[in-house]
Write a structure and sequence with these properties.
heterodimer, A: 583 residues, alpha/beta, ABC transporter transmembrane region fold, Rossmann fold, 2 domains, six-stranded mixed sheet, 19 helices, 10 strands, 65% helix, B: 584 residues, four-stranded antiparallel sheet, 20 helices, elongated
């Protein structure tokens, strides 16, 4: 645990470093403010002493005002220092928070997709919001005040000891014992608070899921079930929260009582000292000590709270580091291949999501330039996985994939993704205009190219019906059908004009008439280009140059449509089943 | 505050009154302590203090401190009791309201903002209550009592203190005016950032494909910069507050001493001594005064956050449901029929109608298919039957009753719907198949298994180690597209409805599974009405009747053979899928 804690600090220090000098400067200014703060009660005591010593005579106003002016100057200095300190701490706390968010964002671009796919979006977003917020708060409220509070604590104690040892002992004993009690209580609360936080995030997760599955909940009348589950979770949370909250809220009256006891102790001991004829203690000293006692309570409360606060922040930091430490995509390739012909070879490719469960077992295939290859097979046969390997979204466990004889690992990712164009199974639109969505893979394409692609993808009619045409921003409010989404996805890849085309169930939601039109455009696009097509509709694959029939991560059959039908194997069974259902 | 009061019941209000009483006791006792200090200092000044008097005064003070603590503890517990109940019922009622929304409300708010409103904003209100309610009750009482006690002393000092309080009030007000719009803009910026992060994670493959890393990072940094900027602006305004307060306290103390010196200058010895001791206790009161003020202001500083959160929650609570519940819950005059009478509907913010002037009738036990191009309005028709959206014109009848008249629950009890996007809930496979309620029974494991067998899901479920108790991740992401589709189909079968609705539900299935499923379904759905939206001719050809849609209208209706003969749109569809079809 301790080593881990050190590691967290070491890693998070990186974010503090750019601001190290400025933070230090701000903290020094804060320290100046604290020094002023310690001096003020002494100054006030001095004034009170001047007045008291002259009781019975005419009071000399000039000495009072002179002392007052000095005191006022110190108060002003304290204000200026403390304000600049607060401001500075908040500025850097927010900036550091922003830097961490930006780092998380950059990291998401680099995390290997295998790992990213297994993460929940909600968790990543919580990293960027609540975890980062907690770090910002820790900087401005725990780390920043560390120095100033130490100064106030030590300074006050020293000043008190110089003035009167018995009174100082009074204050120190009662406040320190109070803080110890608080520390014990709040450190006991740490695990319960963590538990509570988990319960809350469970409740939040339920809201998340309810909205995502909203249609189903309404259509299946499960509103009452969902509400009941939610209510139960809430009741549990509330019950636990009450106890934890009481334990931590009760600290405030406890501290208030201890403050009062300190106050009483100072009054009583002070008076007793005066009555018994001490010459160091006067009423002025007692007044000053009352102020010191209050002053001391701030840093002591701070040190009492910081323990549990930092313990929470450590948890948040760990969550952030968990993401920042994830393995990244390897991009060591240097070969800038050009004039790609489109030969693709798979040589004994093996892959598994976990090392012990292989899903692609030694896949071998040679695809000549310009070939149209169809990949068919049952769901779960490994079709999409194969494409993910070719795109290098996933890395092979062993074996090689070559494009024009060059291992794809030797090609920079950027170049690889220029050469390979893919239409993915799951359509995705960005919250941006239709134009930007279509131009996503090729932002520099000309207006003519854009119009041409829109036309080929049968999107012109749809775009005309939109309120702002091509510049309409796509949002949840727009009812874009699944088919239309797929058309936009296809247009996106078409305009990229890649050397090798991959279509993963690209037209499954598009009606067959439109599909035929698009197919024609895609055929034109893939003329002289190598293309891979994954489809269930056998009509889209029958004219392929080669059909790979996959089963359990292996190629079970290879051949053209006619050859495979003749073979009377898996493919012919698949093909025939499409006409069987009527009977 | 409005929102919080709304969720207080009578008991809570009584408890609140009790809290008030205890707070008053606590405050009176706490402020009594400096009074005794004043007395002590007066006695000391006059040289009348004895050791015995010290002891008795000391005991008195300790006693007050302890009773004040007891009162404060009770207050603390009662407040937590009230606030936890209030935040609990608030969360549940907002969630309940959400469940009553129609799809229109959900999409017009946007899922992202609804999630952040339900979670983050309610949490803000809740933490406001637990952190601030206590000071909010205590501080004004403290303020009043301190002023009452002070009223017996020097008028000038009271005036000075009042001026300081007024000055602070002005400062706080100014701060408020400046900070409120910043808080609002910050929360908008944060919503945008969350949206961008969502998009980033779900669109990551496209970013890889398009090499758009730098533009993604640029746009994220821009939004992130906004969040930081508004954060800095609002926080630095807040940072102005505590130094100002402590400066005011010290300046006031100083002013009292100096003005005291002026007042006492020409007085005699006894008046001077009396004035001095009242000065000492006045100064210690000022600390109380400002503690109270600081507490109030610390609460007030959170008010812009609270109003912002509260406003966002109230928007949900006050949102009128565009689809009000009807009150008809049966018995229905006929079974398994669906009828459209000149129905038109346009999605909000769309220029053109999604469907227009639809008229057709589906009879009991029929299987009707809807086929047509992308954006022809097929899914819209299904949404209208389920009354997930409300028709703009015309009437829709299910089982001979207008869908508007139905209790929504009763209407949806009749229907087993398989949506195009096959969403599964976190839990187990069995829970997902037996999902929901149909007004008649809760599915037993046996029925769930039966449904899964028909839905062709049983075989892959049995391959799982935990079988029907195997876990499902939110959304069903641990299943392939085809498996998800089979599970959602099984879910509809398990409901045993009068009317089945399949929205392009077979697209992710390979032909072999598709054919098996269809054969099994045929037996199960015997007697039930089935509505199928499909792309493949093979999935619609054996329907009793096929509706051909194009651009939101029905262009033809008939059987496969009839349509092949006369409907050009249908012929094209058929030809596009299977050139051999003509030959068959």
């Amino acid at each position: 645990m301790k080593g881990q804690g050190l590691y967290v600090i070491k890693r998070m220090k990186v974010f503090l470093r750019p601001y190290a000098f400025r933070l230090l400067a701000v903290m020094l200014i804060g320290a100046c403010g604290s020094f002023c703060n310690i001096m003020i009660p002494g100054q006030i005591e001095k004034i009170s002493g001047i007045i008291q010593s002259q009781i019975g005579n005419e009071i000399s106003l000039s000495s009072v005002t002179k002392a007052g002016a000095v005191c006022a100057a110190i108060i002003l200095a304290m204000f200026l220092c403390n304000y600049s300190y607060n401001r500075g701490m908040e500025v850097y706390a927010q900036k550091i928070g922003g830097d961490i968010r930006a780092a998380l964002n950059r990291k998401i671009n680099r995390i290997s997709l295998m790992n990213l796919d297994q993460m929940r979006a909600g968790d990543l977003i919580a990293n960027m919001t609540s975890d980062v917020d907690s770090v910002s708060i820790a900087i401005s409220q725990s780390i920043g005040p560390l120095l100033t509070n130490t100064i106030v604590l030590v300074g006050t104690v020293v000043v008190m000891l110089l003035k009167s040892v018995p009174l100082a002992a009074c204050v120190i004993v009662s406040t320190v014992s109070g803080v110890l009690i608080c520390m014990v209580i709040s450190s006991k609360m740490i695990p319960r608070r963590n538990e509570l936080r988990n319960e809350l995030s469970n409740i939040n997760g339920m809201v998340d899921e309810t909205l995502k599955g909203f249609l189903v909940i309404r259509a299946y009348n499960s509103e009452e079930d969902v509400l009941k589950e939610f209510t139960d979770a809430n009741m549990r949370y509330t019950r636990n929260m009450k106890k934890t909250q009481f334990a931590s809220d009760e600290l405030t009256p406890l501290m208030a009582m201890l403050n009062n006891i300190t106050y009483v102790a100072v009054c009583i001991v002070g008076t007793w000292l005066i009555v018994s004829g001490s010459n160091t203690v006067t009423i002025g000293v007692i007044v000053a000590f009352l102020l010191y006692a209050r002053m001391l309570s701030t840093p002591l409360n701070f040190f009492a709270a910081i323990l549990s606060m930092l313990a929470f922040t450590m948890v948040n930091c760990r969550k952030i580091l968990y993401v920042l430490d994830m393995p990244e995509n390897v991009d060591e390739g240097k070969k800038e291949i050009s004039g790609v012909k489109g030969a693709v070879s798979f040589r004994d490719v093996r892959f598994g999501y976990t090392p012990d469960k292989e899903v692609i077992h030694g896949f071998n295939a040679e695809i000549r330039p310009g070939m149209k290859v169809a990949i068919v097979g049952h769901t779960g046969a490994g079709k999409t996985t194969l494409v993910n390997l070719l795109m290098r979204f996933y890395e092979t466990n062993s074996g090689r994939i070559l494009i024009d004889g060059t291992d794809i690992k030797e090609i920079p990712r950027k170049r690889l993704h220029e050469v390979l164009g893919m239409v993915m199974q799951e359509t995705f639109l960005f919250h941006a205009s239709i134009r930007d969505n279509i131009l996503y893979y090729a932002p520099d394409a000309s207006e003519e190219e854009l119009m041409d692609v829109i036309d080929k993808c049968s999107l012109s009619h749809f775009i005309r019906t939109l309120p702002e045409g091509l510049d309409t921003v796509l949002s949840e409010k727009m009812a874009v059908s699944s088919g239309q989404k797929q058309l936009i996805s296809i247009a996106r890849t078409m305009i990229q004009n890649p050397s090798i085309l991959i279509l993963d169930e690209a037209t499954s939601s598009v009606d067959t008439r439109t599909e035929m039109l698009i197919q024609r455009a895609l055929d034109e696009l893939s003329k002289d280009h190598t293309s891979f097509v994954i489809a269930h509709r056998l009509s889209t694959i029958r004219n392929a140059d080669a059909i790979f029939v996959m089963q359990d991560g292996d190629i079970a059959e290879i051949g053209t449509h006619e050859e495979l039908l003749e073979k009377n194997g898996i493919y012919s069974r698949l093909y025939r089943s499409q006409f069987e259902n009527a009977g | 505050m409005k929102l919080i009061l709304r969720y207080m019941n009578k008991k809570d209000k009584i408890i609140s009154a009790v809290i008030m009483i205890f707070v008053i006791v606590q405050v009176i006792l706490e402020t009594k302590i400096p009074v005794i200090m004043g007395v002590i200092s007066g006695l000391l000044q006059q040289g009348n203090m004895t050791a015995g008097a010290v002891r008795s005064k000391g005991i008195e003070m300790v006693l007050y401190a302890l009773i004040a603590f007891a009162a404060a503890s009770i207050v603390c517990w009662l407040i937590i009791d009230v606030t936890s109940r209030v935040s609990n019922s608030m969360r549940i009622s907002v969630f309940g309201k959400l469940l009553d929304f129609s799809l229109f409300e959900v999409s017009s708010f946007g899922t992202g903002t609804l999630i952040s409103r339900c979670n983050d904003d309610i949490y803000s209100v809740q933490s406001f209550m637990t952190q601030s309610l206590q000071s909010l009750i205590k501080a004004p009482i403290l303020l009043i009592i301190v002023f009452l006690r002070l009223s017996s002393t020097e008028g000038l000092w009271i005036a000075m203190s009042a001026a300081a309080v007024a000055l602070m009030a002005v400062l706080v007000f100014l701060m408020f005016v400046k900070i409120a719009p910043l808080v609002r803009r910050q929360s908008i910026a944060r919503d945008m950032m969350i949206g961008a992060a969502h998009e980033h994670i779900y669109g990551i493959r496209h970013i890889h494909c398009g090499n758009r890393f730098s533009s993604q990072e640029e746009s994220y940094d821009r939004i992130n910069g906004e969040v930081v900027r508004y954060g800095i602006k609002s926080k630095t305004i807040l940072g102005f507050f505590s130094p100002t307060t402590s400066m005011l306290i010290y300046i006031l103390t100083l002013a009292i001493y100096i003005s005291g010196a002026f007042l006492m200058q020409k007085q005699g010895m006894t008046e001077q001594a009396a004035a001095f001791s009242s000065m000492v206790s006045f100064v210690s009161y000022i600390t109380f005064l400002f503690t109270a003020l600081i507490n109030i202001v610390l609460v007030l500083l959170n008010v812009p956050l609270l109003t912002n959160a509260q406003g966002r929650i109230l928007e949900i609570l006050n949102q009128e449901n565009s689809i009000p519940d009807g009150d008809f819950s049966g018995p229905v005059p006929e079974h398994g029929t669906v009828e459209f009478r000149q129905v038109s509907f346009a999605y909000p913010e769309a220029k053109a109608s999604a469907v227009s002037d639809l008229t057709f009738k589906i009879n009991a036990g029929q299987t009707v298919a809807i086929i047509g191009g992308t954006g022809a309005g097929k899914t819209t028709v299904l949404n209208l039957i389920l009354r997930l959206y409300e028709a703009d014109k015309g009437e829709i009848l299910v089982d001979g009753v207008k869908v508007k008249d139905f209790r929504l629950k009763a209407l949806r009890d009749l229907i087993g719907y398989v949506p195009q996007e096959n969403y599964l809930f976190s839990g187990t496979i069995a829970q997902n198949i037996g999902y929901g309620e149909n007004g008649r029974f809760r599915a037993t494991l046996e029925e769930i298994q039966k449904a899964a067998v028909t839905g062709q899901a049983d075989s892959f479920i049995r391959q799982k180690e935990e079988g029907y108790n195997a876990g499902v991740q939110p959304g069903g992401t641990n299943f392939s597209g085809g498996q998800r589709q089979r599970l959602t189909i099984s879910r509809a079968i398990c409901r045993d409805p009068e009317i089945y609705i399949f929205d392009d539900s077979f697209s992710a299935l390979d032909f072999e599974t598709d054919a098996k499923l269809r054969r099994a379904l045929k037996k199960t759905t015997e007697g039930a009405t089935v509505i199928i939206v499909g792309q493949r001719i093979s999935s619609v050809r054996d329907a009793d009747s096929i509706l051909v849609m194009d651009k939101g209208r029905i262009v033809d209706q008939g059987t496969h053979e009839e349509l092949l003969m006369r409907c050009s749109v249908y012929q094209e569809i058929a030809a596009s899928q299977n050139p051999e079809e003509k030959a068959v």
